[in-house]
Amino acid sequence: KNQVEQSPQSLIILEGKNCTLQCNYTVSPFSNLRWYKQDTGRGPVSLTIMTFSENTKSNGRYTATLDADTKQSSLHITASQLSDSASYICVVSSILTGGGNKLTFGTGTQLKVEL
Amino acid sequence: DGGITQSPKYLFRKEGQNVTLSCEQNLNHDAMYWYRQDPGQGLRLIYYSQIVNDFQKGDIAEGYSVSREKKESFPLTVTSAQKNPTAFYLCASRRIAGGPADTQYFGPGTRLTVL
Known about the structure:
The complex is a heterodimer.
Chain A: E1 4-7, E2 10-14, E3 19-25, E4 30-38, E5 45-51, E6 56-59, E7 62-67, E8 72-77, E9 86-95, E10 101-105, E11 109-114
Parallel strand pairs in A: 2-11
Antiparallel strand pairs in A: 1-3, 3-8, 4-5, 4-9, 6-7, 7-8, 9-10, 9-11
Chain B: E1 4-7, E2 10-13, E3 19-25, E4 31-37, E5 44-51, E6 54-57, E7 64-66, E8 76-78, E9 87-94, E10 105-106, E11 110-114
Parallel strand pairs in B: 2-11
Antiparallel strand pairs in B: 1-3, 3-8, 4-5, 4-9, 5-6, 7-8, 9-10, 9-11
Protein backbone atom coordinates (compact mmCIF):
# COMPACT_ATOMS: atom_id res chain seq x y z
CA LYS A 1 0.00 0.00 0.00
CA ASN A 2 1.35 3.41 -0.99
CA GLN A 3 1.97 5.58 2.04
CA VAL A 4 3.54 8.93 2.84
CA GLU A 5 4.47 9.69 6.43
CA GLN A 6 5.54 13.09 7.67
CA SER A 7 7.23 14.18 10.86
CA PRO A 8 6.92 15.98 13.10
CA GLN A 9 3.15 16.35 13.15
CA SER A 10 3.54 19.90 14.43
CA LEU A 11 6.39 22.28 15.15
CA ILE A 12 6.79 25.67 16.80
CA ILE A 13 9.90 27.76 16.15
CA LEU A 14 11.02 31.33 16.74
CA GLU A 15 11.17 33.78 13.89
CA GLY A 16 14.56 33.75 12.20
CA LYS A 17 15.35 30.16 13.13
CA ASN A 18 15.78 27.27 10.68
CA CYS A 19 13.81 24.05 10.66
CA THR A 20 13.67 20.75 8.79
CA LEU A 21 10.57 18.73 8.00
CA GLN A 22 10.74 15.04 7.14
CA CYS A 23 8.87 12.84 4.67
CA ASN A 24 9.19 9.06 4.31
CA TYR A 25 7.34 7.24 1.57
CA THR A 26 6.59 3.74 0.37
CA VAL A 27 5.19 4.63 -3.05
CA SER A 28 5.99 2.53 -6.08
CA PRO A 29 6.67 3.00 -8.92
CA PHE A 30 8.00 6.43 -8.02
CA SER A 31 7.53 9.32 -10.43
CA ASN A 32 8.16 12.52 -8.50
CA LEU A 33 7.88 14.13 -5.07
CA ARG A 34 6.47 17.54 -4.30
CA TRP A 35 6.25 19.74 -1.27
CA TYR A 36 3.17 21.95 -0.97
CA LYS A 37 2.50 24.80 1.47
CA GLN A 38 -1.08 25.17 2.67
CA ASP A 39 -2.18 28.23 4.60
CA THR A 40 -5.12 27.75 6.94
CA GLY A 41 -8.39 27.66 5.02
CA ARG A 42 -6.68 27.89 1.63
CA GLY A 43 -5.65 25.51 -1.12
CA PRO A 44 -2.13 24.02 -1.22
CA VAL A 45 0.53 25.79 -3.28
CA SER A 46 3.44 23.90 -4.84
CA LEU A 47 6.91 24.74 -3.47
CA THR A 48 9.21 22.22 -5.14
CA ILE A 49 9.15 19.11 -7.32
CA MET A 50 11.88 16.49 -7.58
CA THR A 51 12.19 13.53 -9.89
CA PHE A 52 14.18 10.37 -9.27
CA SER A 53 17.44 11.82 -10.53
CA GLU A 54 17.32 15.02 -8.48
CA ASN A 55 18.53 15.10 -4.89
CA THR A 56 18.06 18.77 -4.05
CA LYS A 57 15.87 21.63 -5.19
CA SER A 58 15.63 25.16 -3.83
CA ASN A 59 12.89 27.78 -3.95
CA GLY A 60 14.01 30.87 -2.10
CA ARG A 61 14.35 30.01 1.59
CA TYR A 62 12.95 26.53 0.97
CA THR A 63 15.31 23.67 0.11
CA ALA A 64 14.04 20.17 -0.51
CA THR A 65 16.19 17.05 -0.61
CA LEU A 66 15.42 13.60 -1.92
CA ASP A 67 17.11 10.27 -1.23
CA ALA A 68 15.43 7.85 -3.60
CA ASP A 69 17.38 4.90 -2.17
CA THR A 70 16.05 5.33 1.35
CA LYS A 71 12.77 6.87 0.13
CA GLN A 72 13.17 9.93 2.27
CA SER A 73 12.76 13.62 1.61
CA SER A 74 13.23 16.70 3.73
CA LEU A 75 12.18 20.32 3.47
CA HIS A 76 14.54 22.82 5.07
CA ILE A 77 13.32 26.33 5.81
CA THR A 78 15.96 28.93 6.56
CA ALA A 79 15.53 32.22 8.40
CA SER A 80 11.88 31.53 9.14
CA GLN A 81 9.28 34.27 8.92
CA LEU A 82 5.85 34.62 10.48
CA SER A 83 4.35 34.04 7.01
CA ASP A 84 5.91 30.56 6.95
CA SER A 85 3.26 29.47 9.46
CA ALA A 86 1.28 26.88 7.53
CA SER A 87 0.89 23.17 6.89
CA TYR A 88 3.56 21.61 4.69
CA ILE A 89 2.41 18.60 2.73
CA CYS A 90 4.60 15.99 1.05
CA VAL A 91 3.04 14.46 -2.06
CA VAL A 92 4.44 11.50 -3.97
CA SER A 93 3.38 10.68 -7.52
CA SER A 94 3.37 7.15 -8.89
CA ILE A 95 2.79 6.05 -12.45
CA LEU A 96 -0.25 3.91 -13.08
CA THR A 97 -0.28 0.90 -15.40
CA GLY A 98 -1.75 2.08 -18.68
CA GLY A 99 -0.75 5.67 -18.15
CA GLY A 100 -1.73 8.46 -15.82
CA ASN A 101 -0.43 9.05 -12.36
CA LYS A 102 -1.68 8.81 -8.81
CA LEU A 103 -0.85 11.18 -5.98
CA THR A 104 -0.39 10.00 -2.41
CA PHE A 105 -0.60 12.80 0.14
CA GLY A 106 1.03 12.98 3.54
CA THR A 107 -0.95 14.33 6.48
CA GLY A 108 1.26 17.40 6.69
CA THR A 109 3.46 19.10 9.27
CA GLN A 110 1.82 22.07 10.94
CA LEU A 111 4.47 24.77 11.39
CA LYS A 112 3.98 27.81 13.60
CA VAL A 113 6.54 30.60 13.62
CA GLU A 114 6.41 32.85 16.67
CA LEU A 115 8.03 36.14 17.63
CA ASP B 1 -4.75 30.00 -6.21
CA GLY B 2 -3.74 30.41 -9.83
CA GLY B 3 -6.86 30.77 -11.94
CA ILE B 4 -9.03 28.23 -10.14
CA THR B 5 -12.11 29.49 -8.35
CA GLN B 6 -14.36 27.60 -5.99
CA SER B 7 -17.66 28.74 -4.64
CA PRO B 8 -19.03 29.17 -2.14
CA LYS B 9 -16.21 29.47 0.41
CA TYR B 10 -18.49 28.29 3.21
CA LEU B 11 -21.56 26.11 2.78
CA PHE B 12 -24.03 24.86 5.32
CA ARG B 13 -26.40 22.00 4.59
CA LYS B 14 -29.13 20.26 6.45
CA GLU B 15 -29.04 16.49 6.63
CA GLY B 16 -30.81 14.88 3.68
CA GLN B 17 -30.08 17.70 1.24
CA ASN B 18 -27.95 17.55 -1.87
CA VAL B 19 -25.53 20.41 -2.45
CA THR B 20 -23.35 21.34 -5.42
CA LEU B 21 -19.89 22.83 -5.10
CA SER B 22 -18.61 24.89 -8.00
CA CYS B 23 -15.13 24.70 -9.51
CA GLU B 24 -14.04 26.80 -12.49
CA GLN B 25 -10.58 27.17 -14.05
CA ASN B 26 -9.29 29.54 -16.70
CA LEU B 27 -5.91 27.84 -17.11
CA ASN B 28 -6.99 25.76 -20.12
CA HIS B 29 -6.06 22.64 -18.15
CA ASP B 30 -7.27 19.29 -19.39
CA ALA B 31 -7.58 17.46 -16.09
CA MET B 32 -9.60 18.44 -13.06
CA TYR B 33 -9.82 16.81 -9.65
CA TRP B 34 -11.89 16.88 -6.47
CA TYR B 35 -10.33 16.11 -3.10
CA ARG B 36 -11.63 15.96 0.41
CA GLN B 37 -9.51 17.07 3.37
CA ASP B 38 -10.25 16.03 6.94
CA PRO B 39 -8.24 16.91 10.06
CA GLY B 40 -5.30 14.60 10.58
CA GLN B 41 -5.67 12.95 7.18
CA GLY B 42 -4.04 13.46 3.83
CA LEU B 43 -6.10 14.67 0.88
CA ARG B 44 -8.27 11.94 -0.57
CA LEU B 45 -9.33 11.82 -4.20
CA ILE B 46 -13.09 11.81 -4.86
CA TYR B 47 -13.37 12.11 -8.65
CA TYR B 48 -11.23 13.22 -11.54
CA SER B 49 -11.71 14.05 -15.19
CA GLN B 50 -9.12 14.17 -17.93
CA ILE B 51 -11.39 15.18 -20.76
CA VAL B 52 -14.79 16.76 -21.30
CA ASN B 53 -17.75 14.39 -20.81
CA ASP B 54 -15.56 11.78 -19.12
CA PHE B 55 -14.70 11.28 -15.45
CA GLN B 56 -13.41 8.56 -13.18
CA LYS B 57 -14.03 7.59 -9.58
CA GLY B 58 -11.30 8.21 -7.09
CA ASP B 59 -10.74 6.49 -3.77
CA ILE B 60 -13.84 7.80 -1.98
CA ALA B 61 -16.48 8.42 -4.67
CA GLU B 62 -19.46 6.96 -2.79
CA GLY B 63 -22.08 9.62 -2.07
CA TYR B 64 -20.68 12.07 -4.60
CA SER B 65 -21.36 12.83 -8.25
CA VAL B 66 -19.71 15.06 -10.84
CA SER B 67 -20.15 16.31 -14.38
CA ARG B 68 -17.72 17.71 -16.95
CA GLU B 69 -19.80 19.38 -19.64
CA LYS B 70 -17.24 22.12 -20.23
CA LYS B 71 -13.46 22.04 -20.07
CA GLU B 72 -13.34 24.87 -17.55
CA SER B 73 -15.98 23.57 -15.15
CA PHE B 74 -16.13 20.51 -12.87
CA PRO B 75 -18.96 20.78 -10.30
CA LEU B 76 -19.21 18.32 -7.42
CA THR B 77 -22.54 17.28 -5.93
CA VAL B 78 -22.55 15.98 -2.39
CA THR B 79 -25.62 13.79 -2.11
CA SER B 80 -27.61 12.75 0.92
CA ALA B 81 -26.02 9.31 0.54
CA GLN B 82 -22.69 10.69 1.76
CA LYS B 83 -22.66 9.68 5.42
CA ASN B 84 -20.11 12.16 6.73
CA PRO B 85 -19.98 15.10 4.34
CA THR B 86 -18.61 17.75 6.70
CA ALA B 87 -15.12 18.50 5.36
CA PHE B 88 -12.94 20.90 3.41
CA TYR B 89 -13.28 20.28 -0.34
CA LEU B 90 -10.50 21.16 -2.74
CA CYS B 91 -10.65 21.32 -6.52
CA ALA B 92 -7.47 21.06 -8.60
CA SER B 93 -6.49 21.11 -12.23
CA ARG B 94 -3.42 20.35 -14.30
CA ARG B 95 -2.15 20.24 -17.83
CA ILE B 96 -1.79 16.67 -19.05
CA ALA B 97 0.59 17.23 -21.96
CA GLY B 98 3.60 17.69 -19.68
CA GLY B 99 3.17 14.27 -18.15
CA PRO B 100 3.26 13.30 -14.44
CA ALA B 101 5.62 16.17 -13.62
CA ASP B 102 2.98 18.76 -14.38
CA THR B 103 1.81 20.45 -11.22
CA GLN B 104 -1.70 20.24 -9.87
CA TYR B 105 -2.95 23.71 -9.05
CA PHE B 106 -5.47 23.94 -6.26
CA GLY B 107 -8.43 26.22 -5.74
CA PRO B 108 -9.10 28.04 -2.44
CA GLY B 109 -11.46 25.34 -1.18
CA THR B 110 -15.04 25.11 0.07
CA ARG B 111 -15.78 24.27 3.68
CA LEU B 112 -18.98 22.25 3.90
CA THR B 113 -20.73 21.85 7.22
CA VAL B 114 -23.76 19.63 7.71
CA LEU B 115 -26.07 20.87 10.44
